[in-house]
Design brief:
By secondary structure, the chain is an alpha+beta fold. The protein contains ten helices and eleven strands. The strands form four sheets. Strands 5-4-3-8-9 form a five-stranded mixed β-sheet, sandwiched between helices. Helix 3 packs across helix 4. It is elongated. It starts with a helix and ends in a 5-residue tail after the last helix.
């Protein structure tokens, strides 16, 4: 009986070992077929960024001068150098393509709603340029996008805003000139139908000075009104600011790595320290100063000579 039990246990162990070898063989075959390596965990290949996206990032070129002579056409069909849409005001820009159905509409929506919340006035305080990177986009496409943009910003009946917002199209040389100057890298990729009519690119908005130099970049698709206002103030050399803006600007730092403004604790502590010193100095002065009534009283009771 004991021998029968031992034999049954040995058969079970052999069967389990065989099943383990079969499972290992199947998993090894699958890993080899799907490109897995022994030093990479399963699922890593699916998590890796496709190689072509490595060329679709953003390279911040702060201080770079824009190609002001490059030729563009706006939504009305007017053609001219890029300088035609610059004035004595800072400029906020976005580089997209108008027939995009995914990322670009979100960038434009974030730009429109963010600007509407800054309390700065388009045309008076800044200009807006939305530039297409697709040569297939035409003024008719630009006009449709501009109408949507003005609606999202609540500027549909705002003539000043309409005159300050421009959607531009261009031929490839001008597109190359503006994307090279701004460090905006993109690659053409196939769409759902297999046609090479889509683009992979970063989601970012950019700011330029009135004379056409790159000033700031804000990343993502949601742009806080505070960040946009400060970026416009800096791009405009603080000419459209007030004392409160200047104080807020001093208390914040811009990080080119993340494309965001953050509160500077060191600067806030410095201001708090200065205020504390002033208060303490004032208290010491008041406590050590004799009241006038006491001085008069002491003078009145001084001994006569």
């Amino acid at each position: 009986m004991n021998q029968l039990k031992l034999g049954t246990m040995q058969v079970g162990r052999i069967a389990l070992g065989a099943l383990a070898l079969v499972a290992f063989g199947i998993s090894a075959s699958l890993m080899h077929a799907q490109g897995y390596a022994a030093d990479k965990p399963i699922g890593m290949a699916a998590q890796q960024t496709p190689a072509y996206l490595a060329h679709a990032g953003i390279e911040q070129r702060l201080g770079q001068r824009l190609p002001m002579a490059a030729v563009f056409t706006d939504e009305t069909g007017r053609t001219g150098p890029l300088s035609s849409w610059f004035s004595n005001r800072p400029v906020v820009m976005a580089e997209v393509y108008y027939q995009c159905a995914m990322l670009c509409p979100q960038v434009q929506h974030g730009l429109a709603t963010g600007l509407a919340q800054t309390t700065l006035k388009p045309g008076k305080d800044y200009q807006v340029l939305v530039i297409s990177i697709d040569t297939m986009d035409k003024p008719a496409n630009a006009l449709d996008e501009k109408k949507t943009f003005l609606g999202e910003a609540g500027w549909t009946n705002n003539s000043a805003a309409a005159n300050a917002v421009h959607f531009l199209t261009a031929e490839q040389p001008s597109i190359d000139a503006i994307t090279d100057a701004t460090g905006f890298h993109y690659v053409r990729v196939p769409g759902p139908d297999g046609k090479m009519d889509q683009f992979a690119h970063s989601s970012v908005i950019m700011f330029a000075t009135p004379d056409g130099r790159m000033s700031k970049y804000l990343s993502g698709i949601d742009y806080p009104a505070r960040d946009m206002r400060m970026a416009l103030l800096e791009a405009g050399d603080k000419k459209i600011s007030n004392p409160v803006d200047l104080l807020i600007l001093y208390c914040c730092n811009y990080s080119p790595v993340v494309g965001r403004y953050s509160v500077s604790i060191v600067r806030i502590l410095g201001i708090a320290g200065m205020i504390t010193l002033v208060i303490v100095a004032g208290m010491v002065f008041l406590l050590t100063r004799k009241p006038k009534a006491l001085e008069t009283s002491v003078a009145g009771h001084s001994p006569q000579s």
